[in-house]
Amino acid sequence: MMPVVFVARQDGVHSKILSNLEQVEARGGRVLAVVTEGDDQMARLTDHVFKIPDAMHPLTSVLSVLPLQLFAYNVAVRRGCDMDRPRNLAKCVTVE
C-alpha cells in the first residue's frame, strides 16, 4: 500500500489535517508526516514522522520541504533511478 504524506504544521488548519489523518488511519492507510516539534498528538498517529523546528510562518514551508526532498531522493536511490537523467523530463528552456 502506498503511504499518504501529510505536512501537518501547527497552523490554522491543523485540526482539519488531524481529522483527515484519522480518516486515513481508520481505513488502514500508512501515514508519513512532517510535523512541528512538540506535536506529540500528530506524531503518535503516524507510522513515520519527520520533525521540523517551530519557526516563523514564512520559514515553515521551506523547513517542511527539506525532509521530503531528502526522502524522495533516498527512495529514488534505493529504486536504482539515475538522478542525473530523470525519465520523461522535458526541456523547458530552448537555446537558440
Structure keywords:
about 100 residues, alpha/beta, Rossmann fold, 3 helices
Overall description:
With 96 residues, the chain is α/β, with parallel strands linked by helices. The protein has one domain: Rossmann fold (3-Layer(aba) Sandwich), CATH 3.40.50. The protein contains three helices and three strands, in the order βαβαβα. A three-stranded parallel sheet has the order 1-2-3, with helices on both faces. The protein is globular and about 40 Å long.
The percent of residues in helical segments reads 40-55%
Give the C-level CATH assignment. Answer: Alpha Beta
**Beta strand %:** 15-25%
SS-derived structural category = alpha/beta
The radius of gyration is: 16 Å
Distance between the termini: 46 Å
Biggest β-sheet: count, sense, barrel? 3 strands, parallel
The beta-strand count equals 3
Shape: globular
Question: Biggest sheet: strands side by side, in what order?
Answer: 1-2-3
Average per-residue pLDDT, rounded, comes to 86
Report the CATH topology name.
Rossmann fold
Indicate the low-confidence ranges by residue numbers: none
Order of helices and strands: EHEHEH
CATH architecture: 3-Layer(aba) Sandwich
Number of domains: 1
How many helices? The count is 3
